[in-house]
Amino acid sequence: MKSSSKKYLPLLCLSALTIIIVACSTKKNTAQTRWWHSFNAKYNTYFNGAQAYIDGSLEKENTNKDNFTEFIPLYTVGNKNSREIGKANFDRAVEKAQKAIAQHSIKHRPEWNKNRRKTEKDIEWLSRKEYNPFLWKAWMLMGRSQFHKGAFEEAATTFSYMSRLYKGQPAIYGKARAWLAKSYIEAGWLYDADDVIRNMKRDSLDWRAVKEWDYTYADYYIHTGELEKALPYLRKVIKHEMRRKQKAREWYLMGQLQAALGNREEAYKAFKRVIRSNPPYELEFNARIAASEVMAKGQAKQTIARLKRMAASDNNKEYLDQVYYAIGNIYLSEKDTMNAIYAYENGNKKATRNGVEKGVLLLHLGDLYWQKERFGDAHRCYNEALGLLDKDRKDYEQLSDRSKILDELVLYTDAVQLQDSLQYLAKCPEEERLAAIDRVIDALKKREKEERDKQAEQQSRNLQAENSGIGANNIGDRRLEPKSNQKQNSTWYFYNPMAIQQGKATFRQLWGKRENVDDWQRINKTVVGGQVGTSDLENLTDAQRDSIEQEMAKSDSSANTTDSVKNDPHKREYYLAQIPFTEEQLQNSNKILSDGLHHSGVIFKDRLDNLILAEKTLRRVSDHFPNYEQMDDVYYHLYLLYMRKNQPQTANGFIARLQRQYPKSEWTAILTDPYFKQNALFGEQIEDSLYAATYEAFKNNRFSEVEGNRKVSDSRFPKGANRDKFLFIGGLSKLNSGNVEGCINDMQTVVEKYPQSRLSEMAGMMINGVKAGKRIRSEKFNLDDVWNSRTNILNDSDSIKQVKFTADRDIDFKFLLVYNPDSLNENKLLFEMARFNFTNFLVRNFEIEIEDMDGLHRMQLSGFRNFDEAYLYARQLFNSKNVVSQINKDTRGIIISEKNLQLIGTALSFKDYDEFYEQNFAPLKITKRYLLSEPAELATPKAKENNVQKQAELDTNTEQDFYENEPNEEKTENGLIIPIEIEQEKKDTTQQKGFIIPLEKSVTANDSSSVSSENNFPIEEGEKAPDSTKTIIPTNEGKKPAEKADKAKLYIDPKRNNPPNSPSPSNDKKNVTPQNKPKKQPDDAPLIYFNDDTESKTEKKKTDDKAQPVLDFDVEDEYYDLDGF
Predict the structure, then answer these.
(1) What is the mean pLDDT of the segment spanning 621-631?
(2) Where are this protein's TPR repeats (predicted)?
């Protein structure tokens, strides 16, 4: 027996090995192969991916940081700052899922006994597109990993394909559609999510997909703001939830929804459930705060006392801003605004972190100050809140707008408040005045002490954190969990929106509002009369230099006296020096006060639309400061204000005041203009149309029309939006009549009154040029002036006589197009030039550069190794209709060497070069050979030779080998004439296009055939074979791009030297395995293609007439191991 068993042992091993090998193939679809690939996918690649997914989910769960000042998201990935958490693990899970799908996908239909009748279940089975019963979990793993790492578009793509792949399996299909809707919701594509949800409501939902749809409906209704509809689904979600921390978050969200709907008792119960679930401390703390707020009605004192006890706890030192924010909210619910402000201010002072919680507190505090019209305090709060809040908040735009307005307003309101206080102190008795000053000094000292204590405490925290190795944020936590701050701060500064906002806020505090322009430190870049710099001191007299040095010494001395009594804010003398006791000091104070009232009143009226406060402010100026220098402007705004208040009688009274007191004011002219009402309603449109007509007249040299329209602008639109443009064009048109002084005056007006206009810089340059001694000419632009210009004047000096052009043709050349930029579309010309180079010169790289040259633009093309290449390029360029259509008759083309180009504009001019070109380059014969089809970097350097020797060699060639200027060609006024080739007859469209390049090595006669092995492309029937001494480089013109070969079907003969994609020569008769044509992918083919639908050539097996039972290993109803995550 033993001998017989040993005899069959090798046979049994071989059979087992054969079975395993056969089972490994995905091209067979049997019960054994399905079981084998399901088993292998589950316990190999999928297992590793699932573990990575679980690790990533736990990492995200433990380090997620919610913003409890608004609705927390149902999924932690909804927090933008938490999306990067666990990304490495999720990427690994995606990789493993893709590998499992690629290796174990079975798409080949199983063999079927034709004698067996198909049931409904059999038809569904045979119509499937995936036969591995386990692989749906790999697809689900990949999509969920993409979802939880924040790649919602990728997740949507995965679930969309998955729903098509498993459309016949309701349970899997329902889960895939649910996750597809979730991906759309989190990506913000609510319309697409609504479409998926609406379509699923029409279909029957499999009971195994109900859980996923409960999550989907809850998330959808929360995002759409339909909180009533979200509540029942959120209750189901809480029942489904398996994770303790996530369930606590969902209870907190339930409390937030109930509180928003006004269900205080239900909200309180929900928050209590959070506390009883033993969550992380931060979540428990916020639940206690929220529970106190919802139950504060009727028992505000007890709730506030409870919150104050929480503030006294050491465990809550980090959360004092939230505690005092809750206290302030309770005071507000009791309509106690002053105590609410006091609580908010305490929270701001005692806050130890600069997070979103503090930002929300400052936002609400700023809103209270805004309502109280305490704009200085509101500005302080809004500016700090801007750097702490996310731009995606709904109220962020309003916050930003208010901050911008207050940046402008507070300068005036603070000045008014200060001068009112100083004038009040000047009228007070001595004792009361000194007592007020002492209170200010005490408050200053107290504030400085608090800042020192806060700074010392922060240093102590930092030192303790460094010594213990534990971050300060974990001090007092009863559960030392992984810190979210470390994960969040790992991103680069410029990718952290919170850090960006904080940096912007700090910048605004230091520098104020600055426009995003170059050299922003300079106040005015077009200053006509600049300040005296160090270089200008040399041009001054000794007395002037001594005076300047004395003033600078005085300012330095004043700056060094900051420790004196009058400059110390801790001394009474510092404040007494600012109080206006004398008449002169009082006048200066009134001037500041009236100016602040005037400008703040205009902002109240125009920017804040607060007509009551604007009336109060402006009437104070008109009633109390009758000698104010800008009183006409005050009357004008008061007229507009009362017209808006529908009080025309009062408004007309201010027109009468203007006519009586300021008859020559521009506001008097505007208000008494018979077209005033029409201008007020349609003035903007009328002025735009007038400027468009004026500009068109200016371009067409109709200067009288320009002058007439300018007068209309002066009378009807002196404050129009296009006023600077009218002044600028009107000034330029005055040059036509020789009025240079009038032109300069208009430019000066543009610089002074419109410094922010883009025309201001140009006007300032013109003024500075005139002051530097340059002349403004009124003549029309003439190209010949530039063509003949040179910097150095030719004379008899030896240095000028030695400057000459070089006639060397074998040095680097350039091709130039010189044109007036206003005469053509420069961007379109640049595009056509680049396209011409790319499509015609595959192996050359010509660089294009545009330079400004005394009002002209010079487009330079470099990369030509000699004159012949530049000449051939110019001929082909001017033969291109697309390029020629973009230039006009005044555009001039030039072929010039780099050495000669350096002389243009200095000692020699373009006109001089034209004459030199006619004598030295025009008579040359140019070869037609392969100059521009050679790569410049691979070209063999040629020996230096003179033009006479080279021309003699060219003379030995035939006429077909070179170009030559015809004797009857004449030079036109437009510039250089470049001969253009006569268009050749069109060749057959089937002919292969390419460049002909001679070969050094000859080819034997045996190699000539219908298919060239050297050139690697077929020769069509009816064509002549190319010369065997030349290689043809095919171009892509007229051919479709080749399709990529299927890697799974690519056959390579190891004995063959030719590339696999090249046709074999006729004398090569090796047998090649025929290749099947690749199948066309169906419309619902997978977006991730793994080459798993290729068929291998197998022998057909005979099937038994007996019906084979179909072994169904479908595990779609099996418990899904990732449901808890």
Answers:
(1) 93
(2) 248-281
Strand order in the sheet with 892-897: 847-853, 856-864, 813-819, 892-897
State how far Cα 52 lies from the chain centre. 33
Q: Mean pLDDT highest for which of 64-68, 543-547, 911-915, 985-989?
A: 64-68
Residue 537 CB neighbour total at 10 angstroms:
12
**DSSP assignment letter at 428:** S
Which of 753, 171, 530, 874 has the alpha carbon at shortest distance from 728?
753
CATH code: domain 583-671 is 1.25.40
Q: What share of the chain is helix, strand, coil (3-state, %, to 5)?
A: 60, 5, 35
Which phi and psi angles does 173 have, rounded to 5°?
-60, -45
Task: Categorize the per-residue pLDDT at 718 as very low, low, confident or very high, splitting at 50, 70 and 90.
Answer: confident
CA 534 centroid distance within chain: 42
Instruction: For residue 622, give both structure tokens.
Output: 């008109």
373's torsion region: left (phi>0), alpha (psi -120 to 50) or beta?
A: left
Contact 107, 69 (CB under 8 A): no
Residue 643: closest CA among 615, 603, 682: 615
Residue 1018: beta bridge partners? 1011
Task: Tell me the CA distances in angstroms from 561 to 554, 568, 570, one per residue in order.
Answer: 11, 9, 15
Q: pLDDT tens digits, residue range 30-85?
A: 888 889 888 988 898 899 999 999 999 999 999 998 989 889 999 999 998 888 89
Q: What is the mean pLDDT of residues 1070-1079?
A: 40
Q: Please give the biggest Cα pair distance in the chain.
A: 136
Cα Rg for the chain, rounded, in angstroms?
43
Confidence class for position 563, pLDDT limits 50, 70, 90: low
H-helix segments, 105-169: 120-126, 135-148, 152-165
pLDDT in tens, 311-351: 888 888 888 999 999 999 999 988 899 999 999 999 998 88
Which residue type, as a one-letter code, is found at position 543? A
Instruction: Using the predicted structure, report yes or no on whether residue 893 has a pLDDT greater than 90.
Output: no
Residue bearing tokens 């299909």: 173
Closest CA to 897 of 931, 860, 928: 860
User: pLDDT value at position 240?
Assistant: 93
Tokens encoding 164: 């098509």
Please state, in angstroms and rounded to a whole number, the distance separating the CA atoms of residues 178 and 186: 13
**Residue 239 phi, psi dihedral angles, 5° rounding:** -70, -35
Comparison of pLDDT for 435 and 460, the residue scoring more: 435
Separation of alpha carbons 1015 and 1031, rounded Å = 6
Helix, strand or coil for residue 67? coil
Task: Supply the DSSP string of 180-197, one letter for each residue.
Answer: HHHHHHHHT-HHHHHHHH
**How does pLDDT run across 799-816, given as a tens digit for each residue?**
445 678 888 888 888 898
Pairwise CA distance, residues 112 & 1107, whole Å: 9
- C-alpha span between 507 and 315 (Å, rounded): 34
List the chain domain ranges. 583-671, 676-780, 785-963
Angle at 632 (CA atoms; ends 631, 634), nearest 5 degrees: 60
Query: Does the pLDDT value for residue 378 go beyond 90?
Result: yes
Give 114-119's long-range contacts (Cβ < 8 A, gap of 24+). 115/1105, 115/1107, 116/1107
Kindly report the CATH number that applies to the domain delimited by 676-780. 1.25.40.10
Q: For 435, phi and psi rounded to 5 degrees?
A: -65, -40
Spatial contact of 813 and 928, defined as CB atoms under 8 Å apart: no
Cβ distance 662 to 631 under 8 Å?
Answer: yes
Instruction: Report the top-level CATH class of 785-963.
Output: alpha beta
**Among 606, 631, 607, CA closest to 619:** 631
- With beta carbons less than 8 A apart as the criterion, state whether 521 and 515 touch: no
Please state whether the predicted TM-score (pTM) of the whole model is above 0.70. no
676-780 shares the fold of 583-671: yes
Arithmetic mean of pLDDT over the chain: 75
Whether the CB-CB separation of 161 and 142 falls below 8 Å is answered with no
